[in-house]
Amino acid sequence: MKNKNKEKKERKQLPWRLNVLFFIVFLLFSALILRLGIVQIVQGSQFTKQLNQTDEVTVNTSMPRGQIFDRNGNLIVGNKGLRAITYTRKGNVQPQDMLNVAEKLAAIINQDSTIDVKSITLRDRQDFWILKNPDAAKALITKADMEKYKNNPNSNDLLYQLQLSRIPKSQLNFSKSDLDVLAIYRLMAAGTKLTPVIIKNQGVTDKEFAYINENLDKLPGVDTEIDWERYNTFATKNGQALLNSILGNVSTAKEGLPSDLANYYLSQGYSRNDRVGKSYLEYEYENVLQGKKEVVKDTPDTSGNVVGTQVISPGQRGDDIQLTIDAKFQAAVEKIIEDLPNIEKASIGGYQPYSDRAFVTAMNPNTGEILAMAGKEWVKNKKTGGYDIQDYALGNINSAYPVGSVAKPATLLTAYQVGAINFNTRFNDDGYLKFAGTPMKKSWNVSGLGDGLTDLQALAKSSNVYMWRVAMAVGGQKTYVPNMKLNINKVDAMDKFRKYFSEFGLGVKTGIDLPGESSGVNGGMPDQPGKVLDFAIGQFDTYTPLQLAQYISTIANGGYRMQPHIAKDIRTPSTDMTQLGPVSQDFEPTVLNQVDFSQQNIDHVKQGLIDVLHGPHGTGVGHFPLSDKYGYKVAGKTGTAQSVYVGERSKSAVSNNMWNETFIGYAPYDNPQIAISVIVPYTNSETHANLTIADRVFDAYFQLQKQEENSQNANDPASETQVANVNQAKAAGGQ
């Protein structure tokens, strides 16, 4: 009876238990459905984005840089194709995997360990030893060490540094074969994930290239491709090249982003192993010359292995730059400077032991286009004892010198402007000025240049005494009696001089499209009033050759300071690598300022510049035989400035009684097409090398112009009307 009641009771409890179970299952399903809804509806887009980011990774492949041409379409800097062996770190590759590949590669290719080993640091050696000796490395850390740092949040880093410090130094003296492996491994490890890095692109042999291609399946991540490197078509066997220092450098494939520019370039979307312009023109126009990378999406599987590739956008080499410079004219000017040892008495290392450099800047005074920018420096060869010629074109923009009498046109114009003198002002030149309590001011011609000199006569004869009197007048002292006190307002005088000199570009940056330009050296406020007089004859502040070229160009074109530029236009890449493509950006002439002088005053001084070379007593008369012979009349100003030599040629590092020989000028004087500056520093006597160089530069320019005109007429016979149109364009300042 009891058993029956018990059974009956248990049957009643069973449906209740089932209901509880069903209810629990219902709650679980409800929670699951709710969670799925949240995941799909609320977080769905986020997870989809994460999925896409995981499955598709963008790979950037570097493309060749744009090329550099001269104004006539002649290639100056191009790209030379190189066979290259690359490595791309893909998926979940571990250091040991890369080491295995590096060991295989080292057995196949002849790695240039001479170069690469120099880049291997102590840390590289330590990490390499740990990777090759994991058990021995693990043993360097004791249980006591683990216990000591177990609660430190930086325990891993602290233990790692401890491990590095305990590696015996003797274990880091690797064999050459190990160093070759390490050199390859460090290149692999330095690469960004899914971005190819160059393992070798110099001297890859046919055998190496073929063997790698045949065994790609055994070398995961390794590939071959055609790489590039920069070359100058005018390079010589001794390593010199046209415009070498102005063009600048590009980082190598193994160097990647230069350390001092890395953060800037990374912020612009570059990869660490990208090659970029490091200096001057290559750096200034990096955004133009840098190619557009090929963008590829690699789709990896769950293990990180690439299973699909899609090209999103094809790569394109960088845009080309056409320069304002004529390569033939540039080469001719460089050759003229290199012949300096044969110019009259300017023998390098002989009669002129300190004359170790020379500069020429030539520009179109109407447009600011740089036609040539040449500089050479003679550097002693420690092995041979002789002197090697090195390109120093950069000296035109970043080295400054006292320039002497070429500053006198600006001195006169300043004096006219402030009312200190006029066209009729006359001064006597007895060769000196005497002041009480001040050392005598002696001119270069102590016998004097005559009484009652006019301003133009003073300019033609290069009278220092006249210009000193001008400076006195600018400073408020218009009378002179021997042995009187020099009592000028030096602050007011210097402020006026520097204000108006700067309008010509003297003492300020010219604005050229190259980095690293110097503004010259401002000597500050003179401690003695006599130094204001020195300023008026170009013996106080210093100026660059480019500043002098901009200065004389401003006078030549009637008072417009043009911004000098070396890039003429940007070109879309052509399918023919030797030809220019269509213009994508043209650089128009830019007027920085118009000088605050009347046209009458400027024209008056221009007549004085003609008299310097063609007047009866001009300092340049007879020094331009080529210009006189071929009929393109030159206007200009000669200069000689006292200087102090500082350099390797003087044992004491300082040699006094040096002279900087300078020249500024333009031609033809009635229709200027070219303006130049010449500086030959540190001669110890008057050589006239500055004038001989200037004459040859003008001759080279006009002879090339004539050749080009004859060539155009021969290839494309034109009507008289067409020829007239061309001549009118040239008269307006065209080339």
TrEMBL record:
The lineage of its organism: Bacteria, Bacillati, Bacillota, Bacilli, Bacillales. The chain crosses the membrane at residues 20-42. InterPro entries: Beta-lactam/transpept, Beta-lactam/transpept-like, PBP_dimer, PBP_dimer_sf, PCN-bd_Tpept. Pathway: Cell wall biogenesis; peptidoglycan biosynthesis. Its EC number is 3.4.16.4. It comes from the Bacteria. It comes from Heyndrickxia acidicola. PANTHER family: PEPTIDOGLYCAN D,D-TRANSPEPTIDASE (PTHR30627), PEPTIDOGLYCAN D,D-TRANSPEPTIDASE MRDA (PTHR30627:SF2). The keyword Transmembrane helix applies. It is an enzyme of class 3 (hydrolase). Residues 710-728 have a biased composition (Polar residues). Keywords: Cell membrane, Cell shape, Cell wall biogenesis/degradation, Membrane, Peptidoglycan synthesis, Transmembrane, Transmembrane helix. This is serine-type D-Ala-D-Ala carboxypeptidase. It is found in: Cell membrane; Membrane. Residues 708-735 are annotated as: Disordered. Residues 64-310 form the Penicillin-binding protein dimerisation domain. Belongs to the transpeptidase family. Residues 359-700 form the Penicillin-binding protein transpeptidase domain. It is a single-pass membrane protein. It holds the Pfam family PBP_dimer.
